[in-house]
Amino acid sequence: MEQRTLGTSGLTVSAIGLGCMGMSEFYGTRDDAESLATLEAAVEEHGITLLDTADMYGSGHNEELLGRFLKGRRDRVTVATKFAIRRPDDAPVDSYVRIIDSSPAYMRTAVEASLKRLGVDVIDLYYCHRINPATPVEDTVGAMAELVTAGKIRHIGLSEVRGETLRRAHAVHPITAVQSEYSLWTRDHETDVLPVCRELGVGFVAYSPLGRGFLTGAVTGTEDLPERDFRRLNPRFQGEALAANRRLADAVRDVAAEVGCTPAQLCIAWVLHQGRGIVPIPGTKRRKYLADNVGAVSVVLAPDILARLDTLFAPGSVTGTRYPEAGMKLVNI
């Protein structure tokens, strides 16, 4: 597996990481046995070293699952987790009700809980999952820096922030990585935070590089998705937007056939080609999809292919926002 360093931090990880979120919720029912087998294949067979989770995935289940896997393997992987998103106890499971708490007080409680669930002494990369403007980012990062000094975390990350927020945070303590959604059909970060990442020497971790599976052609409508699948709420999967976006998935399929790879590999390879400081973390809970995703490392995209993809996915080509209205209020802060 190719290795990449996140910015100038010195943190080196596999060029493709593994997003573990779907192993616990958002994309259908859990299958812990298959998830653990997928984690084992990722590390033992494919050389993936970056495993990404968060305390809110499955309300702690995802960290606990990863903790079970880490026993005996801790020194071989980079563990990334997050804090700041909470769901009210009375919120429906399939709703998008969120409480964002990026306060130092909550962070200190959250990190101890994450360390316990993961069964580790230190977290390699700790993200503030979302920013609440009521808490200055300087206060949040300052408190996270105290965790670095205390040896509870090694690196600090932010998720779904804009360039100005990153600058303010980085002035308090070096930020190792920004994690945000980035794919052929989500490219808004190219005009703001990505240039700032490059300027400051901050790595970029791209989640949902497959457009939540849509760009692979695997999803043709919401009627076949599990009842509580997050994509049932996603505007890009609804009505006229779905019909319009299907043409983009068809285009990906056609270009992939020309290149000689699968649609998933084309999408991930495109992200890899956007810069050495970018690491995609496609999520899966099944070994067969994992093997397909990892194959993207070997895919070389010629300049004319990259240019064609840029044209196909030019600004305005995608119909619908990437989150429901409530979710869009929490990003690019």
TrEMBL record:
Give the species this sequence originates from: Azospirillum oleiclasticum
Q: Does the record's keyword annotation contain Repeat?
A: no
Question: What PANTHER family does the annotation carry?
Answer: AFLATOXIN B1 ALDEHYDE REDUCTASE (PTHR43625), ALDO-KETO REDUCTASE YAKC [NADP(+)] (PTHR43625:SF40)
User: What CDD domains is this protein classified in?
Assistant: AKR_AKR13A_13D (cd19076)
Family matches, as InterPro entries: Aldo-Keto_reductase, NAD(P)_OxRdtase_dom_sf, NADP_OxRdtase_dom
Q: Name one Pfam family in it.
A: Aldo_ket_red
Give the protein's recorded name.
Aldo/keto reductase
- Specify the NADP-dependent oxidoreductase domain's residue ranges: 16-311
Keywords of this entry = Oxidoreductase
Q: What top-level branch of life does the organism fall under?
A: Bacteria
What are the top taxonomic ranks of the organism?
Bacteria, Pseudomonadati, Pseudomonadota, Alphaproteobacteria, Rhodospirillales
